[in-house]
Amino acid sequence: MILVLLSIAWLAGSAFAAAGYSGAWWVVALACCAGCAALIARGRHGQAWLLGIALLVGLISLSIYEASRPGPLPIAAEGSAHVLAVVVSEPETRGEPQSFRVRIETVLESEMAETEALEGEHLRVVRPAYPRFRSGDEIELAGEITPLNSIESPGFRTYLERQGVVASMEYPEVTVTGYRGRAGITEAINDLRSELAQALERSMPEPEAALAKGMLLGQRDGIPDDVEEEFNDAGISHLIVISGANVMLVAGFVVGALRSLAGRRQAIVLAMLVVGAYALFVGGSPPVLRAASMAVVVLGGVLFGRGDFSRGVASPLHSHGLNALLLAGVVMTLLDPLVVVDVSFQLSFAATLGIVLFAGRFEEQFEHLLGRLPEAAARFLSGQLAMTTSASIAVIPIIAVYFGRLSLVSIPANLVAAPLFVLALAGSALTAIAGMVDSELGRAAGEFGHLPMFLLVTLAEFASSLPLASIAVMGHGIPDVLTMYGLFAIILVWLLRRRPRDPEEVTVRRVRVGWAGVAATTVAGAAVVVWWGAFSQDSDRLQVTVLNVGQGDAILIETPDGHNILVDGGPSGSTLMQALGEALPAAERHIDLVVLTHAQDDHVAGLVELLRRYDVAQVIEGPLQGVTGAYGEWAKAVKAEGALRHVAKAGQHVELGDGARIEVLAPDRRLDGGDLNNNSVVLRLVYGDVSFLLTGDLAGTGEKALLDSGFDLETTVLKVAHHGSHGSTTKDFLSAVAPAVAVVSSGAGNPFGHPDASLRLRLGDVPLFRTDLNGSVRFESDGRSVWVMPERGTFDGGVAAAVR
Fold this sequence. Notes:
Structural class: alpha/beta
Number of helices: 26
Helix content: 40-55%
């Protein structure tokens, strides 16, 4: 009890200082002195001494925190610099650019007054997605340095400061001069993580592959923003990051699975080893190490406290884990006093504390509710559900304040998500290992391994779509967090004062379904999902989907004969992978033909990732090569894939079977001095009486050349050129094409104003679909009619319907 009180006093002192209340320390001191006087008056001298010591401990903690506050940043002004540096972090590739941290080794040239202060400091560097950099690269940088105080977001600025970053460089000139190898074991672990990540990417569709990398490897940068938002609103986002709750669930899984086989103490020791190895494996970042340390310390407290696991996984945590957890918190704040303001520390500590305090009580209740399951299954699931529920409740105030959202469906969503998480984590691990051994084996494992992840995604989508699933909350940091926890504690104490009935008084008729029945049900359910996905695709229609990939083009063609053709890949590999994951069956990992209309990043960048994850048989591209890093990576990827490479030429055609064919209409010759847009590959897809004209980024010069070519341009569906720019889709061109419907691919809020307002006027009565408004737009045809099915919304002037 004394250790608990002093630990609480220490942590309270740090929290008090972090909340900005250091100046009011004397109020707390007076209150404690009054308390000591009252205790002495009652003859309770020992308690008075304890309260005085606790006050002293809290004040020491407060003083240490204040002394650790960072001083002014060494970089306070903008200026250009030319430096030698080494990359010290793996790039984050969320979205189109990549960002990474570098440590400056030598300043070659600088116009800044703080030139000497630059050496040894860390910068955040932002570069285009390709070429990719890696930790250990020695690079030469030349560009503008921007201080952190120019960043508008206080949260992001604090995040960078916590990483030791003092300034940033956006889109500097970079030259790789060498590679600085890391320690042997570190290099081996990073290589293994990279291979496992690539195995998951090859074996699972998106967004399931990105979520699997987040859960298993701690790599979150590939998770789409909309998916992450759905998980946040559903209150289950802690499952896709490596946090205290996540690590405790892994530990609970190991203990629950091995307790009956290896014994109580051995299972706990193995769980501690698994958690430690897992933390090192996923990169050993400070948040991960903190989460793992808390889990190991709590398990150690249970181990040496001789907790009884005979009644469940979570039951002994309360009695022996609290002291250990509080001690771990004290040690962490001693080593790094400012860690108390780190949101990841707060989440991990709160989640673990919630598990320690409440999981045992919840476990008893869940075991009664699951009484009809086999005893071992009921005990195992009740432990997982109890820990998930406890962690979810404990982190509600922090999530509400820092992320501005309070999920009202968090607890029921977590009850469903807890068993799915265990299955998803196990399935991801097996899929990754199988994919490392053999690509086909990995894809076979991925067909089943992605199912629990798919169900998690579906759960998040459903829960977040419910009315009032989450509400906006205005918070301002630690003071509001402490206030919410105070109210929270009052409610929980009131609820938990009700003593549950003695388990022996509850009579449950346990039906022995048997493990064979459980396994049969699981396999049957998986089979239903797999075969449903296989037969739900229309096989007698041509399908053309203009994918929503932002400000770029990507068009998927699925023929009645079973061929998959992709025209362009958009600006982002992760966005393309998510779009293909939604459009194609999970097991479909083959693209028969890829067409690159022209070598600009908004058409080629996504194809680099496609070649890493899908089997591509053939490639058609225009005669003009690109000069960007993305095009260079594309050329390397095509060579590595071994795909047949063809140069497009007007007059070529590709037979797709079942009466479908692709005609190449351009380029016939080099136009406009080699302008990439006007030399785009132009395709006409024909199926029976229906045709699609895919025009790349043609501008006026290219359209005139096409009009002079003598080709039949009349078409049913027109993919508007160059994202609907003012200089494309001229009146003469539209008169020759005479489309029944048009579709334009453009990014929401793009800086170019695409599509231009004049496009609507030139199209007249022709219905226009836009990916920025309608999402992905799918066309289906039987060769006589076309059915238009946008992801959302309608075209201008009516409801989407069949076009005849």
